[in-house]
Amino acid sequence: MAHERPHRQPGDLEIGTADVFMNREGPPVHVVEHPPPPQWYLRYEKARPRLLVEMVAECFGTFLYCWGGMSNVGSLLSVAFAYCVAILLALICCASTSGGHFHPAFTIAFTIYKGFPLRKVPFYIVAQLLGAFVGSLIVIAQFHEPLTHITHEMEAAGKLREIFTPLGPASAIEATLMPGRNLGYVFFNEFMMNFVMGVVVFGILDPTNVFISPTNGPVAISLAFFLVIVAFSMQGAAINTARDLGSRMAAAVYWGHPSLVFPKKYTALSVLTNIVGVFFGAGFQILFLSDTKRAITTGAKQMLCATSHGQLAIDTSVPGITRVVSTAPLARTVSITPNSMEKQRHTGSHGSFSTRTEEA
């Protein structure tokens, strides 16, 4: 796609993984420069719909989250670790493009509390559901032989319903419950896991939080998911509406029997409870654990500088609000109440930031 790179000087590291050292602080490490992108790619980049790119990022991130997590059929610890790594990689690969929601509950929470555009919500949720559905189908395809073998054995033994319990092969794909479980207890368990996740994620994203740097955020979020899966998933856990509903749709495609794949009460509980839990958890963090009078951390300011080519001016003339004004050619103004760092209405060709996000 690209033209040939410039001549490599003695001592320069070759293009590849060494690119991680480019344009970073620290001891000088010389990496051979990349060639400029070809004109056809620049024209494509300018013409492609921004919302479509964000949907692709959400779709692939949710795909990676589901595909990586479902692919492990070992112990609970190894399953939790697989989900942890999958979420970490999804955030690293896709969050800079779409914001890294991968979860309808967080898309809704970002809309309510951080001004994420309402018009984007259905597109993001559709992309997340599609990513989970495709990821689940691919896991089924990769494990087709053992899944088919176990399914045929259980059907021959007259244990059709057990296929869709924690003792059956469907439990590797979709969230299942043992018959007779108290749904009130399952609801409480699901609510508490997602309440805590809402508090933790919004706490990590708080730009005044001095105990976490922006670059460590994905690691901390992944470890939080690891904790709730290890500690409480044995009691029944869906955690993510997209993962739960997408995997059920894939299971229905493979096994059929929609009445067993979509048990009415438990499906409604698993799909909706995490939205309620994250909503209250995020609200709890904003109401009781954030403070607009705290200063924005150096790391948060550096992240803003990175997106504004380092040309920023800080304006604190309005009490409780820090304005970060970019003097770059594509000037952006960021108004920040230190418990949020929400994007604002765009100005110029690429926009600006404020407490409400209105993107082209």
UniProtKB/TrEMBL annotation:
Gene3D superfamilies: Glycerol uptake facilitator protein (1.20.1080.10). Keywords: Membrane, Repeat, Transmembrane, Transmembrane helix, Transport. InterPro entries: Aquaporin-like (IPR023271), MIP (IPR000425), MIP/Aquaporin (IPR050363). Coiled coil: none annotated. Residues 340-360 are annotated as: Disordered. Residues 349-360 have a biased composition (Polar residues). The keyword Transmembrane applies. It is a multi-pass membrane protein. It is found in: Membrane. The chain crosses the membrane at residues 51-70, 76-100, 121-144, 185-205, 217-239, 266-289. PANTHER family: AQUAPORIN 3 (PTHR43829:SF14), AQUAPORIN OR AQUAGLYCEROPORIN RELATED (PTHR43829). Belongs to the MIP/aquaporin (TC 1.A.8) family. This is Aquaporin. It comes from Vanrija albida.
